[in-house]
Every structure is written in C-alpha cells, then in structure tokens.
Design brief:
With 582 residues, the chain is α/β, with parallel strands linked by helices. Helix content is 48%, strand content 13%. The longest helix is centred in the first third of the chain and has 30 residues.
Length: 582
C-alpha cells in the first residue's frame, strides 16, 4: 500500500540558533517513567533511603563526567550549565523532603523523589523571572536521570541517531543536548524554551540551526516527516512543497559554497571600491566563537557579552573570569577585544543579588546601574579584564549608560582597581580604553559631552530603537512598530558618529543593523567605519562593503536622513542598494 503524504505545515517559533537545516524528523517523546503509588514495609525503609542516596551519588558522578566532557570539547562557560544541576541535585531541602516521605510515609524512593520534584517544578513554573523559569529544564533533567535509574530503566543516547536528523522535542534536556553531534543531527526544534534556555545555548555553540517556542511541534510533527529548520527567521516547514524545498536547498548550497570560498576570501580587506577601509568585528558570547570569527575574517571582537558567566547559581569568581577573558584576548591577539561589563537586569540576577520585583525591568535596575550599586561585583570584573589584557588588548564597554555621572563613577572605580592591582604587584593592562554603549537616547543627544570623557562609542541599535520608539519588540501587538530605519533612530546614529569624528574617537555599531546587508551602505554612508556583528554574517557584509563606493553611500545616507518614515527609508534602500552595490 502506498504511503500517504502528510500535509504541509508552517510552524512559527523563536529563532534560537542561526542557519538552515533540512532533514528527517526524530520526535523525542521520552519523558520520566510512570511511578506507581507503592509503599515499602517498615523494615525496608532504611534500605530504600540508602538506595535513594546512592542513586543521587551515581547521577552526580554522571553529571560531573558530562561536565568534564563539555569543558574539554566546548569550554568552561558551557560546562557551567551543569553546575546548576549539581547545585539542585545536592540541595539539602530536596534530600530532606524525599527522605521524610520515605521514612515517615513508607514511600518508595522513586515515588518520594517524584513527589518532591513535582513540587519543585510547580515552583519554577510560577516564577516570573524568565531566566530562572527557563531553568525548569534542569529540574526535569535531574528528575529524568534519577527516576530512570531508580526504576531500573536505561537512558537513551541520542548520539546513535542516523545522519541528517532534525530532533523535535517538547523540551530537550541539557544532558541530551550535549549529545547532539553536527554530523548526525542537523537541527533542533522544541515546543518550549527560549533563547536563554540551556538547549539553545548549547545548540548555538555547536552551530545547530534551532527554533524553540513552537508550542506544539512535537505533537504536530511525526518521526520521518521532512523538516526544514529556519534558524534565521524562527520558522519550521514540515513536509514542505517541492518549491519551498528547492528554495531552501538552494539557500543551503549557497551557505556551503560561501563557506568553501571563505578560506580564499577571508584575507581580503573590507574595503570599498574607492579604497575606504571598514573594520568588521565580531559580537560573541563565548570563547568558542573566536575561531569562527577569525575564520570569517573578523579583525577583532567588537563586543563580548559576558552575561553567560553570570547566569549560573552563583557569581563567577575573579579567577574564572580571568581564565575566560584570557582565552579570548590571547586567541584574538593582536586584534582588540571589547568586553562589555555585565548587562543583566536585577530580575536576571535575583538568585544571587538582593533585588525587588520591578514592573518594568527594561527601564529599571540593570547594566551599569547594578555594577555601580554592587562594587564587589563590578570590581571583580574590572580586575579580571585588566589582568587578561596583558595577553593582548582588552577594552571595557559600559552598558545602559544614561548620564555622565555614571561614566565618572565608573572611571573612579576603574582607577581604584588599577591602584589595588599595582599595590598588590599583580600584572595588568595599565592603559585600558573605556567606552560606552549608545543605546539610551540621552547619550546620543549629549554625544559631544560624552566624547570628551570616553575613548570610544558603541551604538547598540537594538535598544536604541526600542527606547527611542517606546517599543518592546518582544511584545507581539506592537512589534511591527519596531523599526531601526526610523528617521529618528538614523538621526541619533548620525549625531553620535558626527560627535565621535569631531572629538577624534572611534564609533562602532554592534546592534543587529550592522549585520543587515540592506543597511550596510547606509551605515557606511553615515560615516561608520567599525561594524560589529555575528561571526557568521561577516562574509556577506564584507561582500557588500567591497561592492559599494563610499561617495555613493554618503549620497544615499544624506537622502535617507531627509525622509519622514522608516518605510520610506527601507524603500529607498531597496531601490538604491542593488544599483550601488554592483
């Protein structure tokens, strides 16, 4: 009998790791085993308690082995994910509650642990903090590993999958995600999760195109379905039509061909046709991305986001930070590395810092505000950056700055740290440039004043656009109002670039706009000479730079500044860019 073809579906989700993957779906439905309501006899209670404690020890050893393997293959930052699991596994309250159920109610070890973890999961589901809520996957990972062992089952390994497979799951657990090898697995789709979930972080580090937050993919997709994962747009095509499949296969071929050409083209300068040099830098989240950045032709790190170091269940030590920053600075030398100080809100750090719930954390206690109010946290990071700087060139970037007073206070703390290191005889980079993110309109409007007190500007156009237009692009009902081509945003960019030129300090752009090929001629025309973007986007942007003429780009930018809406700007660019980028 001929197999019936399942209908085409298009599922929307969240783009969590870039790229396009095409393969057959493997739907991962395995979860925790069913636990019957059984009891043990009184004389078996202590043996059951001992069985529970031994299982915790076994799982802890397995997690530590996984952690060591991840550290060897992917670095210390990714391995820190499993510290969170060990923290939970060794939580005395979890042990206490489980042992009480065994000893006082004669529950089996698996039943007692299941009840305890059910309460823990309910607590995590009710947490408003997005990051901590995403740690529910850690609770589920521990639950699955412990209960499968207690019930005598076996953990299935994903690393035995066939090639060209797309994993589809409700929520892939961290211990499962680290088994995904790019030769076997091409992409990942989950119902839940977000860009900060551990599965997403691991997938990005492995270069696996990933779409999360689809809500129902594991129910709507069947194993064996043909699946296209568009990790750039956050879309999943299930059983695509021949035309859609042809389009995406062509896209994959272009990506592969570009990678093949890269070794021959990466050494070419990012220089316009009229010999104007543009520096292409990389935005990175972890040391593992440095090699990709270099392979793609980056001439430095324009922004290293340090947030991953701070998302564990404790603050990173100074020595841990020194090790991480040194890896990046050494690998990128002699090119500079701009290290952004921790840019998290109090809601993301509430598990390690005392903070009250905020109605609007985007406008609340975050970024430089937390650093200045928490000197121990700020000083530890500054010391680590300065110490790592002896291996190359590190630069400091302050986020969420809105006033000159914050810059002055930060400089004072930096001076204190330098003096302390000097007194202690610790080698450090004595001349360290200090810059600010231009993401709050007040900084752009006062750019001349800021330019007298900082060494460089870095335009964070994502937040600059949101703050200028009062739009949270994560809110579906107003997301369409988010427009980085809005004339108001362009004028703030132009004001910042002009101030930097007058005062003789460099200006870079590190927002998503820097990686948009349509925007590149506009940015070059506005006078930007440093573009910092995701490593994978560098080759395409370099091609645009090499195809344009700066004088034509300047004329295009001047015309765009006279337009009245973002739609008009976009239309002008769509008409002009193909003509000037020939």
């Amino acid at each position: 009998m001929e197999k019936k073809t399942r209908p085409y579906q298009k599922l929307a989700g969240i783009a969590a790791a870039p790229g396009v993957a095409i393969g057959r779906a493997f739907v991962r439905n395995e979860g925790v085993p069913d636990i019957p309501k059984r009891k043990v006899s009184a004389h078996q209670v202590e043996a059951e308690a001992e069985r529970f404690l031994n299982t915790l020890h076994q799982v802890g050893e397995e997690i530590r082995r996984t952690q060591r393997l991840v550290e060897m293959e992917h670095g210390a930052e990714l391995a820190m994910i499993f510290e969170a699991q060990l923290f939970m596994l060794e939580d005395p309250e979890i042990k206490k509650q489980t042992l009480a159920l065994i000893r006082e109610h004669q529950c089996t070890a698996d039943r007692a642990f299941s009840v305890t973890l059910k309460q823990a999961k309910k607590m995590f589901e009710q947490i408003e903090n997005e990051y901590l809520r995403m740690r529910l996957s850690d609770v589920m990972d521990i639950e699955q590993q412990v209960l499968i062992r207690l019930t005598g089952g076996e953990l299935r390994a994903l690393n035995t999958l066939r090639a060209n497979t797309v994993i589809v799951a409700h929520d892939l657990l961290p211990s499962e995600a680290v088994q995904l090898g790019q030769r076997r697995v091409k992409g990942l789709v989950t119902d839940g999760g977000g860009t900060t979930s551990h599965a997403s972080i691991i997938a990005r580090s492995m270069g696996l195109p990933t779409v999360v937050g689809t809500e129902s993919a594991s129910r709507q997709i069947a194993s064996g379905d043909m699946v296209i994962v568009d990790g750039d747009q956050g879309v999943v095509h299930v059983n695509p039509t021949a035309q859609i499949l042809r389009i995406y296969r062509s896209q994959v071929q272009r990506q592969v061909q570009r990678q093949r050409d890269l070794s021959a083209r990466r050494s070419l300068p990012a220089r316009t046709r009229d010999e104007h040099e543009i520096s292409l830098l990389a935005n990175i989240d972890a040391p593992e991305e440095v090699q990709q950045a270099l392979d793609n032709g980056a001439r430095g790190v324009g922004m290293y986001r340090t947030e991953m170091l701070y998302l564990g269940y404790r603050l990173p030590s100074e020595e841990e930070q020194v090790a991480t920053y040194t890896r990046i600075v050494e690998a990128m030398a002699p090119y500079p590395v701009v290290i952004r100080t921790v840019d998290l809100g109090g809601d993301k750090l509430s598990h390690v810092l005392e903070s009250s719930p905020e109605a609007n954390p985007f406008l609340g206690w975050r970024g430089i505000r937390i650093c200045l109010d928490t000197p121990s946290l700020f000083k530890a990071q500054l010391r680590a950056v300065l110490r790592a700087g002896v291996k190359g060139e590190a630069q400091l970037l302050l986020p969420m700055v809105s006033s000159l007073a914050e810059v002055r206070r930060a400089r004072a703390v930096l001076s204190e740290v330098q003096e302390e290191l000097h007194q202690a005889g610790v080698p450090f980079q004595e001349s360290c440039k200090l810059g600010v993110m231009v993401e709050v309109p007040s900084v752009a409007l006062q750019a001349d004043a800021f330019a007298e007190e900082v060494d460089f500007f870095s335009l964070g156009t994502n937040d600059l656009t949101q703050y200028t237009l009062a739009v949270d692009r994560g809110t579906a009902r107003v997301a369409e109002l988010y427009d980085p081509f809005h004339p108001a945003v362009l004028r703030l960019i132009a004001m910042t670039v002009d101030s930097g030129r007058r005062r003789g300090i460099p200006v870079s752009i590190c927002g998503e706009l820097a990686g948009d090929p349509l925007a590149v001629p506009l940015l070059v025309g506005l006078g930007l000479e440093n573009l910092s973007l995701s490593p994978g986007l560098i080759p395409e942007v370099k091609e645009v730079v090499r195809a344009i003429c700066q004088s034509e780009a300047q004329e295009l930018a001047a015309g765009c500044l006279e337009l009245k809406t973002g739609a008009e700007v976009r239309q002008r660019l769509e008409e002009a860019v193909p003509r000037i980028a020939q």
